[in-house]
Amino acid sequence: MKLSQLTSCLESLAPLAYQEDYDNAGLIVGQPDQEVQQALISLDCTEAVVDEAIATGCQVIISHHPIVFRGLKKFNSKTYVERVVEKAIRNNIALYAIHTNLDHIMAGVNAKICETLGLKNCHILAPKNNLLKKLVTFVPHSHADAVRNALFEAGAGNIGNYSEVSFNANGTGTFNGNELTNPYIGEHGKRHREEEIRIESIYPAILESKILMALILSHPYEEVAYDLYPLTNQNQEVGAGMIGELEAPTPEEDFLYHIKEKMHAPVIRHTALTGRPIKKVAVCGGAGGFLLKQAIAAGADIFITADYKYHEFFDAEGKLVIADIGHFESEQFTQQLLYEIIRKKFSNFAVRLTEVNTNPVKYFI
Q1: Do 282 and 140 belong to one domain?
Q2: 276-287: b or e for each residue (b if 16 or more CB lie within 10 Å)?
Q3: Distance CA 243, CA 117 (A)
Q4: Upper half-sphere CA count for residue 19 (Cβ side, 13 Å)
Q5: The domain containing residue 269 runs over which residues?
Q6: What H or E segment, with its residue span, contains residue 240?
Q7: For the segment 134-148, what is each residue's pLDDT rounded down to a tens digit?
Q8: I need a labelling partner for 96 at 20 to 30 A (CA). Which of 3, 111, 275, 338 fits?
Q9: Co-location of 260 and 122 in the same domain
């Protein structure tokens, strides 16, 4: 199949618009229209992973971490990044990354951590804003249901656990078409008054083109009147980190042992124990220190993440336990998540998990 079919599947779940500004998720090497028969999934894209792709006949490597974050000015094999890109190009292997956009969705990296640890009632810890917009349009009564249904089917009207959400108000519209018009109602050259319904509905900004196409195709007027409003509302379905609850309060040491076992963590760096049982658990795969304030504000008893610096541990101030389990360890299940997504969508497509342990950190215990 075409590489674009595979990347479209991933981006329908984790849109590139959800990634952080510093990130470089998406197609890094390759052409959307190139044919691919087999994909290799890895947390990182290293030389060993590219060699594995060559040996196993994979035409694309899907990694969580982008091999290129910043622009490359030279290709002379001096760095591992340059060597990976050069080898991929020489062997016609596409490189695709799905990074913070996958971190920020409800069914993403953090959800896998929550599932692994047995957490319940999970939700986004730090929801993102400026991802939602509102559409307002004006429709004759005869077509109100058709337009509403079209908008809902295109992805409008979803708020939390509710779907098909809209606000509707009656009013009177006026218009006067010139000689070039062919109005659905009324005559050109004469002002017409029509009883209409004002329909308002919220939608994800990334679906705007799809929403507008649905509106135009379902609306009877040849010139459709509509307004688009940017919203600063938080999108509760998109954001950084997650927080959930254990079935029952658990002693701190017992839960640390639980984390160590379930997350295959050789060692856990943590702050002093508080002496309180663990019930609420905040998590963030990768470097999540920026979410500490949100974890404390949400009432978390422990914050599980990675890449904590020495002085940052002081910020816990006895309010919760910070548990640094390691970057690789916190994101290791990303590979299985991507495997399941692709297999579910393309049951006959060959996809394999890397056999290379790409963790650059080793532990001497």
Answers
A1: no
A2: eebbbbbbbbbe
A3: 12
A4: 18
A5: 109-126+239-325
A6: strand 234-250
A7: 999 999 999 999 999
A8: 111
A9: yes
Q: Count up the domains in the chain and report the number.
A: 3
For residues 341 and 299, state if they share a domain. Answer: no
Query: Are 66 and 24 within 8 A, CB to CB?
Result: yes
How far, in Å, are 41, 126, 136, 331, 353 from residue 335 at the CA level?
A: 6, 24, 41, 8, 7
Do 8 and 96 sit in the same domain of this protein? Answer: yes
Is residue 361, in this structure, part of any structural domain at all?
A: no
Question: What percent of the chain is predicted at pLDDT more than 90?
Answer: 93
Tokens linked to 101 = 């956009």
Position 360 in a domain: no
* 147 neighbors 140 (Cβ within 8 angstroms): no
Separation of alpha carbons 225 and 208, rounded Å = 15
User: The CATH number of the domain where 82 resides is what?
Assistant: 3.40.1390.30
pTM equals 0.88
Amino acid at position 119, single letter: L
For 7, half-sphere exposure in the C-beta direction (CA atoms, 13 angstrom radius) is 25
Take residue 202 and report the two structure tokens written for it.
Answer: 């919220």
